Task: structure prediction
Amino acid sequence: MAETKYRRILRTPREIAKMRAAGLVVWEAHQAVARLMRPGVTTAELNQAVRQTFAKHGAEPLFLNYGGPPPFPAETCISINEELVHGIPGPRRVRQGDLVKIDTGCRLGGWCGDAAYTHAVGKVSEQAQRLCEATLGALHLAIKLMHSMTKWSQIAREMEAFVNDFGFHVVDSMVGHGIGKNLHEPPQVPNLFDPAWAAREDFDLRPGVVIAVEPMVNIGTHRLRELSDKWTQVSADRSLTAHFEHTIAITADGPRCLTGPPQGDELSQVSEPFRQPATWLTW
Ligand code: MG
Result:
């Protein structure tokens, strides 16, 4: 990537602190959803928990009315089983054994945060468990490698190899992204090694880079299909899918997870019911 492009994507420590505040609200929204997640809950009820969390903190939902036509109609993308991303909440009830993917983001004080989590509801199949392990493992591997590797393409290559070792497939048509004042900013952040992309757009993990890292993995084919609602992306062979995401900043002290749990004084920034670490959903 050319030097001039870095000027546009690099954030100051002060800007990163603002993104952390937005990231904490996103974290809390995921906690609120986790408390409701059980067989019988509707996806509209889960979305309502996100909406209420954002409203409580005065945060602007980023997914509501995004894109289109038709614009996305909710604060949260909720995608079940073969649905990977961009599922629309509604009257559908979560069932025992489902993989429920929750993806949401908000803007607070002008800066954005974005994170996703795959919930295994009750007892899921062994393959579904392994799929979640592979996908979350790829995210954790990326964060770990961001301490030492200097090019994103190197990390993407490791993520891909990690997932392939499970016998699963990284989705290549959806990628992570830069994030800042807006939800989707440059650079693109692919989850596998693509030489054409690397030649054109590879970037250095230098302090100030803030990216949403979001591995998406299918048990079967890597290919996706869009449903007639013009949003929901399902695996083309209807195999199970998983998705985990955090917003990560590279700082002078290494990578910092901006959508991770509160630490130290940050506890006072989250609502009272979410101040007990023992009860936290972590990823
Ligand atoms: Mg994202």
Summary: The longest helix spans residues 13-36. The domain at 3-279 is CATH 3.90.230.10 (Creatine Amidinohydrolase).
